[in-house]
Specification:
single chain; 288 residues; alpha/beta; Rossmann fold; eight-stranded mixed sheet; 8 strands; disordered C terminus; ATP-binding; nucleotide-binding; CobQ/CobB/MinD/ParA_Nub-bd_dom; cell division; ATP hydrolysis activity
């Protein structure tokens, strides 16, 4: 695809909302009809699966990186238009995995999906730096805390050394009554401000529920902020897209009254992801 479609979501330190940002940006775009893949490239401390109530089979990204499985085998469908590629949590799996294989993984997913979000691990290591150079753009996630901002500066430097490009800054856990200027934080880091996500108790609740915030509390302040950021990132009107899809789905249900799909809520069995990804990749290869 010609436009930027692969984004690495990175932070200088853990606990700033990086995985939450990855999941919710991807889900917001999927709700608008974009085909999305979210990939846990935090090979040492994987946690994306827990954010979306995914209990992967034995096959994960680690198996792909050890050449024991294909990317299709490690892909799980979460809902309409969105799949996840989780990483393993075992130390043995981590020791055997080769981060260099991420190049082929990203290349395949880039051709098969409209958007790919890479949930990058925090800290400085080869598997952390590599995705920063593979992505079309890097989104830096930080809280307003000085320590988090300082660590973000280091991540920006790492991105530059990896040959990547920083797209902008997303500030999380913001407060309306704060005297901190988020625009000034972005200016200090010399990168654009993509958006500020308000502190929202529903965010923690959604994690425990294993449900993306934009689904758990779609009208909440944090969910609204994530949808706005996703819309700006993709250059589309998500609300209008979602409205049209809802109307289209309603028309289809009336025409197909009594028919049943995989799931009435539009969510299909995750195992069906393997066939979907295979078809998407085959179609992309045919078009290239």
């Amino acid at each position: 695809m010609s436009q930027e479609t692969v984004y690495a979501i990175a932070s200088g330190k853990g606990g700033v909302g990086k995985t939450t940002t990855t999941v919710n940006l991807g889900t917001a775009l999927a709700q608008a009809g974009e085909r999305v893949a979210v990939v846990d490239v935090d090979l040492g401390m994987a946690n994306l699966a827990g954010f979306v109530s995914l209990s992967p089979d034995a096959t994960t990204l680690h198996d792909v990186l050890t050449n024991d499985a294909s990317i299709e085998d490690a892909t799980y469908r979460l809902a309409d238009n969105i799949v996840a590629v989780p990483s393993g949590t075992g130390l043995d799996d981590y020791a055997k995995a080769s981060p260099e294989g991420l190049r082929d993984v990203v290349a395949e997913l880039r051709d098969a999906y409209d958007f790919v979000f890479l949930d990058v691990g925090a800290g400085i290591s080869h598997e952390t730096v590599l995705p920063l150079g593979l992505a079309d753009g890097v989104l830096i996630v930080s809280t307003p805390e000085p320590a988090a901002v300082q660590d973000s500066r280091k991540t920006i430097e790492l991105t530059d050394r990896a040959g990547g490009a920083v797209e902008g800054l997303i500030v999380t856990r913001t407060h309306a009554d704060s005297d901190v200027s988020y625009e000034e934080i972005a200016a200090q880091l010399d990168i654009p401000l993509m958006g500020a996500v308000p502190n929202d108790s529903s965010a923690r609740e959604s994690v425990y529920a294993g449900t993306p915030l934009v689904v758990y509390d779609p009208e909440g302040p944090a969910a609204t902020a994530y949808r706005r950021i996703a819309a700006d990132l993709a250059g589309i009107d998500l609300e209008e897209r979602a409205r049209r899809r809802s109307e289209s789905d309603s028309d289809s249900e009336r025409e197909d009254d009594g028919a049943t799909g995989d799931d009435q809520d539009g969510t299909h069995d995750r195992e069906a992801a393997h066939d979907e990804v295979s078809s998407a990749i085959t179609e992309a290869e045919s078009d290239s």
